[in-house]
Design a protein that fits this description.
By secondary structure, the chain is an all-alpha fold. It has eleven helices and no strands. It is 48% helix and 0% strand.
Length: 288
């Protein structure tokens, strides 16, 4: 793991007393901190931090307080969204990425799972059913841009483990075939492999697949990813995605990439973790 890297120490040193880092949302345009809470959590998660770590415990406590109404995130309210619904979605998603022991976050996950289950109740997506379920569950009538996209990082992450096999299969087919990918993560069709492996596009593509790999009923539908990655393995048994993937989010994991060996180790670690997820047994046996 990478908890002692300079990256981790830098982020932890910026955490505030209340457990936040500043504005919450990554796309916040009025950030009063060099890093948003969401950016910090995304990076710390990638570096191996879990709910066992104090910095994450403090952040989860802060998010729970915001979700339950004891606090408010400092972000400017976005007028083009159902802001309260979106805020609860963001907070619940990040809480559940670290722990499934917060009841109010689990309740939000169940709400969204119910909406999506109704939208796919005939084994295909029906927009009218989504709109009706959205209105029934959240008590608001979505209009135009106010309709929250459900093929996004938040919703896809939030509902992991909440859907039955039939709905998961329909959702997986729908997401893989979406022309604009998963919002906030990857903006191309996921059924089409990125043309260049040594690119940030490919790194973002892997981030989208990492989300879908958590859907245990349908991970088998991502076998083409396994074949693609295994075909890109170098003669030394490792992977190298090149210098361009150094985005300070997914990479680097090591303190620096001055040595190619460090970059290869980081890329290989990430890909091996994904292949292990896709194997379904957690030990990477799909590589054999």
């Amino acid at each position: 793991m990478h908890k002692d890297t300079k990256w981790a120490k830098q982020i932890i040193s910026m955490q505030r007393e209340d457990g936040a880092w500043g504005d919450f949302h990554t796309l916040s345009v009025s950030s009063n901190s060099p890093i948003t809470t969401e950016q910090a959590l995304r990076r710390l998660e990638r570096l191996g931090f879990t709910i066992e770590d104090q910095c994450i415990q403090r952040a989860v406590s802060y998010m729970n307080d915001c979700l339950s109404g004891k606090r408010e995130i400092p972000d400017r309210r976005e007028k083009l969204l159902d802001w309260d619904v979106f805020t609860s979605l963001m907070l619940s998603t990040w809480i559940r990425r670290f722990t499934k022991d917060v009841p109010i976050a689990n309740q939000v996950a169940d709400q969204w799972a119910g909406v999506i289950s109704r939208a796919f109740h005939q084994d295909a997506y029906y927009h009218e059913d989504y709109v009706a379920a959205y209105q029934d569950v959240f008590g608001v009538k979505p209009r135009g841009a106010r309709l929250i996209k459900f093929v996004s990082f938040y919703t896809i992450s939030l509902m992991q483990g909440c859907l039955d096999k039939r709905v998961e299969e329909a959702l997986m087919d729908y997401v893989l075939d979406m022309e604009d990918g998963i919002y906030y993560i990857y903006d191309e069709r996921l059924a089409v492999l990125p043309p260049v492996f040594e690119s940030r596009q490919a790194s973002c593509y892997l981030a989208a697949i990492e989300l879908l790999a958590k859907y245990r009923h349908t991970a088998y539908r991502l076998q083409f990813i396994v074949d693609w990655l295994n075909g890109l393995k170098m003669e030394n048994g490792k992977w190298d995605m090149g210098k361009l993937v150094n985005d300070k989010v997914h990479f680097p994991l090591s303190d620096n990439w001055r040595k190619r060996e460090s970059r290869e180790a980081d890329c290989t670690e990430r890909i091996m973790c994904l292949l292990s997820e896709l194997s379904g047994d957690g030990n990477g046996s799909i590589l054999n």
